[in-house]
Amino acid sequence: MNPLPLDGIRVIDFTQVMLGPSCTQVLADYGAEVIKIEKQKIGDLSRWSLGEDPDGLNNPVFCSLNRNKKSITLNLKDESDRALVLDLIDTADVVVSNFRPGVMERMGLGYDELKARNKAIIFAVGTGFGLEGPNRHKGGQDILAQAMTGLMDRRADPDLPVTIYPTPLCDYTAGMHMVQGILLAILQRQKTGEGQVISVSLYNSMLALQMQEAAAHLMRGKDLNWAAFPLTGVFETTTGPFVMVGAFKPNPLRDICQALGIGDLSQDPRYADFDSQAAHRADLQAIFRREFARASREHWLERLEAVDILCAPVRTMAEALADEQTAVNKMIVDAGRTDAGPVRLIASPIEMSAAPLAVRQTPPRLGEHNDVYKTALANRKARVA
Prior knowledge:
Elements: E1 10-13, H1 19-29, E2 33-39, H2 60-65, E3 69-74, H3 79-90, E4 94-97, H4 103-106, H5 111-117, E5 122-127, H6 142-148, H7 169-192, E6 197-201, H8 202-209, H9 211-220, E7 232-235, E8 242-245, H10 252-260, H11 274-279, H12 281-292, H13 297-306, E9 310-313, H14 317-322, H15 324-328, E10 332-338, E11 341-346, H16 370-384
Parallel strand pairs: 1-2, 1-4, 2-3, 4-5, 5-6
Antiparallel strand pairs: 7-8, 8-9, 10-11
């Protein structure tokens, strides 16, 4: 087998919940030795996300974010535990945390302290709002970031209620930005021999996610809303909803009308071009809703695809996981077994022909690797003595 891209990279992982763990799982999947530092008895807060679980503290939420990692439990007020974590950091490449600003410093584990011991250390920090500014100490959480960056306010129709996006989009996006930052810092260290601080935040990641919309506002004073385009929407049929995107064609309205079996509305001056369609979006959408309600989803998908209009069924999670495309893409991975049964997880979305994903470590039990690293430290001390 080829060596994995991050073989030989040691990561000391103080993260919990999702932002940090989603980052360090990518590093672990591709070869890094990720040592997860957890509180004694409690561990990562995500171990408690589902309350009582047949597998105790290794519930599905925790497992989804922590394969291929090692877990040790420490009390940093205990001198022997503190010696262990400092020894690990002395031999590490990356330290990752997602506490509020100042927490690592108060534990004596800030960048300046660690750099004095290991000038090559890369110190990656994930926060809610950044290391500086008026909200730096505000608790960071996915839903708050949705609200404060304008994302939650964006919806297909202004008459729809403001609502919470139900998947932690901000955490995952910031986690992937942190992966990018760490990899860039590793590349730069090859040139300079020195580490640096990498900072990402939920706030910045959500602004970056809206880069197109922000540029339209900043440069033209316009509101860009892809979901509110006149020929785009979710429509009910006799057998369930589907989504249609009428775009990327010279005259998509004409083709939609052909699929519907009605007259060409693009010949009507009210719908002759994009601007007029946008001005009369409510009328167009009402026509679409009425027509699509007449027949099954399968009927309309076939008709729309025949004229090359983008469309897809609105599926449940269970349907998506059972889809043949999911299997072909190898997006479900078996990560071992526990007393509660098989551990089945979503695989990495990154396909590397020379470094395919392999599960080397089932999501660890709390403190599973305490003896391994404490014994290693004791042996090193004995050799020095």
